[in-house]
Amino acid sequence: MRIRLVIAALLASLTLTMVGCAKEEGPMEKMGKSLDETAENVKDAAEDVAEDVADATEDAAENVKDAAEDVAEDVADATEDAAENVKEEE
What we know:
Blueprint: H1 2-20, H2 27-89
């Protein structure tokens, strides 16, 4: 009697194992894969945005540097002109 019970338990375990290893995906597995794919897409999009922001920041910094250099040149020119005007008035 015990042997039959053990054999029945083993067969039940084997059957459950085979069902659990079925190749067909269930709805939870499909949803999990969908969530993984969505998370990967969000990550990729965030990386793209971060790169765009970094590029825009570099461009803005270069523009500010160029503008500051232009202002410095204008101030230097104005200073020279003012110095020449002072010498002419003397």
